[in-house]
Structure formats: C-alpha cells, structure tokens
C-alpha cells in the first residue's frame, strides 16, 4: 500500500475566503485529514461516491464522444442559448465558457443566479473603496458586520482575517459592530448590535451618510437613530474601519442604491481616516466570473455576444428576467451549490429548457446532456479569485477519471465550430 501524502498550503474552495493554508493528507486515494479543521472545508473536499457515469444523455450513460455530438446537435438548433453558473468554474474554465458563448452568440449571466449582485454596476458607476482581506486583518481596528455572518458562512474568517486574527499594525483589541435583521453567531461577538430589518437598510445607509456630512436629521423619522449614531461615532473615530457586507445586504431590489449610498458614506469617512467595504460572496469564484467577463467584453455581467460585439444590459439580461420572458431556447448550466439556493420559479423555468449541464456532483435538476467534471481544487488544479479579487492557485489532491470543465467546454466549442464549418477563431473582439 502506498504511503500517505501530505499536500501543504492547499487552497480551499469551500467558501469565498479561499483559505490557502490547508494541509491535506491523502491515504489510499482518499482524503484522510484536513488541518486546520473547518466544517465547510470537510464538506467541500468530500467526493460523493455515486454510480453516475461521467457523461449521460437523457439519464443514460454515454461516451464522451457521443455526449459531445449530442450537445453539438442540441445547440445547432438554438438561437439564443444562455450560460449560467460560471462561479463554479476555475478562471480557465470561465475563459473557455466565454469563448464558447461568443461562438454560440449566447447570453451569459456570470452572477450567482440565486442572488442579485449589483456590485459590478456600482463599481463602474460610482466606484467603491475596498481592500484585501490581508489589509483588513493587519489594520482594521473597527469592523462593522452588516447582514454578514462569517462565523456561520465562512468559519475561519475571524481567525484568519478579522476579529481573532493578529493584526500586524494593531495596538489594541478590535471593536466589532453589527447590523442585522436577527441575532447570529457574529452579532453575538459585537460590542454594539443594531437589530434592523433588511427593508430599513437604505434608510440606515442614508442616515450614516447624513451624519458623516453633518446634515440635520429628523429624529422622529429614523428608528434606532441612537444605535446608528453610535455606529457612526465608532467608525468615524477608527484608524481603519472595515464594513463587511454579505449578499443579503446588497441582494435586494434596492441593492444598487444601498451599495452606492454606503460607497458614498465610506468616501466621506476617508476624508479623515481610512475606511473600506468588503463584500462577501456566497461561493468560491463568483468574483472571478465577474472579472473574466469584464476582461473579455469590457462589461460587467450580464452580456450577450453578437456578431458585431458583446452588448450589456444590467437588468434585461439577468438569467431570471430572460427565463421569465421566454427569451432563452437552450441552457448551458454549470452546476454547483448555487442550485440549492436558487428560487423555485427559476428552477421551474430552467427545467423546461433543452439543457447541457456540467457539474462536479450529481445534480437533482434534469439535463438532456450531463457531464460530470473534475472538482476544482480537489480533482483538478487551475485558479480562482478570493472574495477580495486575489487570484490563488488550486492543487489537485485526488486522482480522477473525469475531465476538467475547461476540457469539456473546449471540446464542445471545437465540435460546434466544426459542425458549422467555422474555424475556432472568435466572433467578438477581445478587450
Ligand atoms: S473558511 Fe472557507 S475557505 Fe477557509 S477553510 Fe473554511 S470553507 Fe475553506
């Protein structure tokens, strides 16, 4: 029997923190130990043993060549396919997917279809002062968690990057503040917890901005003004304030307005000290997907590839909108954890369309052609972007017979080109 192997400094794709300090021990072809322990990491590195073959056509096992031929045939009749779920891919996989979309003239929604993310639009329209997680760890003396619960969603956030991490330039313990609609494991750590419904966020952000600008506030009209004043007092007197927000904060209908107002507030704080916004993401590489599409097209997501170049519509090209309007006639789905939190109407609309799916685990959602691909950071390498946009290299720690998503996509792109008598050169100019 072969000796156990230990891989050092392995990047974990279990959440958007992409911790890059794991030691993974592999024995007899299986992961024997993960250190330091993290429940989400244990779940990510587990490879489900199931009987699903690597390729299926209508639920029946198929060879890779017949599956690619079937996918090519399915797409040949499609006029407006949609690609979604790109956050489950590595950067190389995303680039391959965008080449494929270009060749197909497809829509691409690179955001998490389960939640709205206006940050790409806000970054381009008003800008946002942000920082790396390392800078937050080393410098932030006051941290406001606003609808963010990293103690639950990113179990090692506190010890690696925030409340419990040693800060190189800190001389006193950090102050934790929280605004949330309910008590959480993170609000339990806060010195000041302002319990406030999500519907109040825009008002609260405007109140903070008004306080920073020295405007008069009608005390009768703002609930919890005392808490908001205390939060502003602590943030504005900090040497380095960090405001950590999760998708619940910016994912609602008025998410763009809330984020823009917060960005304005943080700009005001920067007149006298340093303050930043850190946006959490609900999965490993959604920020990488946003970057990949911006590199490729010059636009934030979502886009449509057309013969005369890509076009951008921040609301009209969202997957949910396209599907509800019946503007899509085929789906290319990159499966992963986002499917478990996708709204039921989105799942119902997706289930009605001819679909090609690529995923690293068996999907409950049907697809005409399914490819089971290698799991990034476990069964294949590549790279992903951490939530603060820092790219990190992944390590293959387990052997596999599965193709990478990138290989499968490239093979299907080439097959589509060959079927239509085209070279694989792209239609749209790359930026
Ligand atoms: S916090 Fe996230 S990235 Fe870090 S080890 Fe846990 S699951 Fe992995």
TrEMBL record:
GO terms for biological process: methanogenesis. It comes from the Bacteria. GO terms for molecular function: formylmethanofuran dehydrogenase activity. InterPro entries: Formylmethanofuran_DH_bsu. This is Formylmethanofuran dehydrogenase subunit B, selenocysteine containing.
């Amino acid at each position: 029997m072969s000796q156990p192997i230990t891989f050092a400094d392995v990047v974990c794709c279990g959440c958007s923190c992409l911790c890059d300090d794991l030691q993974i021990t592999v024995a007899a072809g299986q992961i024997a130990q993960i250190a330091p322990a993290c429940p989400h990491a244990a779940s990510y590195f587990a490879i489900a043993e199931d009987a699903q073959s690597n390729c299926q056509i209508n639920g029946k096992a198929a060879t890779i060549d017949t599956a690619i031929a079937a996918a090519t045939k399915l797409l040949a009749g499609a006029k407006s396919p949609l690609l979604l779920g790109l956050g489950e891919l590595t950067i190389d996989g995303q680039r391959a997917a965008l080449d494929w979309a270009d060749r197909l003239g497809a829509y691409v929604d690179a955001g998490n279809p389960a939640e709205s993310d206006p940050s790409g639009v806000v970054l381009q329209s008003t800008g946002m002062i942000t920082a790396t997680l390392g800078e937050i760890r080393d410098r932030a003396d006051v941290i406001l968690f606003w609808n963010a619960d990293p103690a639950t969603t990113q179990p090692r956030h506190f010890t690696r990057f925030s409340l419990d991490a040693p800060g190189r330039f800190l001389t006193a313990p950090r102050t934790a503040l929280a605004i949330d609609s309910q008590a959480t494991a993170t609000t339990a750590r806060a010195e000041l917890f302002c319990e406030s419904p999500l519907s109040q966020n825009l008002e609260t952000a405007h109140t903070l901005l008004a306080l920073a600008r020295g405007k008069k506030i009608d005390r009768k009209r703002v609930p919890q003004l005392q808490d908001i004043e205390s939060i502003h007092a602590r943030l504005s007197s900090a040497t380095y304030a960090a405001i950590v927000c999760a998708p619940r904060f910016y994912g609602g209908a008025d998410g763009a307005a809330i984020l823009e107002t917060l960005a304005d507030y943080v700009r005001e704080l920067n007149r006298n000290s340093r303050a930043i916004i850190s946006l959490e993401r609900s999965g490993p590489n959604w920020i990488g997907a946003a970057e990949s599409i911006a590199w490729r097209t010059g636009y934030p997501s979502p886009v449509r590839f057309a013969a005369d170049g890509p076009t951008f519509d921040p609301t009209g090209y969202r997957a949910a909108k396209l599907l509800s309007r019946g503007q899509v006639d085929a789906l290319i789905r990159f499966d992963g954890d986002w499917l478990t939190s996708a709204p039921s109407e989105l799942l119902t609309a997706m289930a009605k369309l001819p679909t090609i799916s690529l995923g690293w685990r068996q999907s409950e959602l049907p697809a005409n052609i399914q490819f089971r691909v290698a799991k990034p950071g476990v069964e294949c390498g590549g790279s992903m972007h951490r939530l603060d946009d820092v790219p990190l290299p992944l390590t293959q720690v387990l052997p596999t017979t599965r193709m990478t998503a990138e290989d499968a996509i490239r093979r299907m792109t080439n097959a589509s080109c060959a079927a239509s008598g085209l070279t694989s050169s792209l239609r749209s100019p790359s930026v």
